[in-house]
Amino acid sequence: MNVEFINPFLQSLLNVLSTMASLQLTPGKPRLKTDNLAKGDVSGLIGMVGPQTKGSMSITFDESLALQIMQNMLGENPGKINDEVTDMVGEITNMVTGGAKNLLGEKGYDFEMATPVVVAGTGHRISHKADGNKIIMPFTSPYGTAYIEICFEN
Q1: Distance between CA 100 and CA 136 in Å, rounded?
Q2: In whole angstroms, how far apart are CA 49 and each of 39, 67, 143?
Q3: Residue 76's pLDDT is what?
Q4: How far apart are the first and last CA of the chain?
Q5: CB distance 104 to 8 below 8 Å
Q6: In this predicted model, what pLDDT tens digit does every residue of 96-154 receive, in sequence order?
Q7: What count of other Cβ atoms lies within 10 Å of the Cβ of residue 49?
Q8: How many other CB atoms sit within 10 Å of the CB of residue 138?
Q9: 26 bridge partner residues
Q10: Which terminus of the chain has fewer Cβ atoms in its 10 Å neighbourhood, N or C?
Q11: What's the CA gap between 154 and 152, in Å, rounded?
Q12: pTM
């Protein structure tokens, strides 16, 4: 998988959470992912299609981190994942993908974004919409971990 294609998503996630939620995440080590099991409690998944490629990206948050992001962004913490939290995760997924789309556009890549799908619950599954390698990368914080997964067809 092309690092030039992955880095804009990682940069965008860091930018969105520092700007919108005043949270600094520490990137971990990327690795290949071979299953569809989500590592956290709530995930936003978005598909992307363009002339050069087809793929999808997901962001999964531990419940504690999702609730802290909501507290920082909206000043409220429902204490558990509810409809407002899943809406926020969908919006963050949109913002991260939009930021990456802008960065990739500067390099000549263009794609259209689908509407994000949000799935919640311990042990939920993420089904990427592309046949390619899946890269997963953890981002740690004092409030929990976020995981970004990127899958593009070669």
Answers
A1: 16
A2: 25, 31, 33
A3: 94
A4: 7
A5: yes
A6: 999 999 998 898 888 888 999 999 998 899 998 788 889 999 999 999 999 999 998 86
A7: 15
A8: 18
A9: 140
A10: C
A11: 6
A12: 0.94
Token pair 């390099």 in the structure block, residue: 107
Closest to 33 measured CA to CA, from 50, 16, 9, 58: 58
CB 15 within 8 A of CB 36: no
Return the structure tokens found at 94. 């949109």
* Amino acid at position 114, single letter: A
Q: Are 56 and 122 in contact (CB under 8 A)?
A: no
Can you read off the two tokens belonging to residue 90? 């969908």
Q: Tell me how crowded residue 63 is: count the other CB atoms within 10 A of its CB.
A: 18
Q: Which residues pair with 145 in a beta bridge?
A: 140
Residue whose token pair is 């936003």: 44
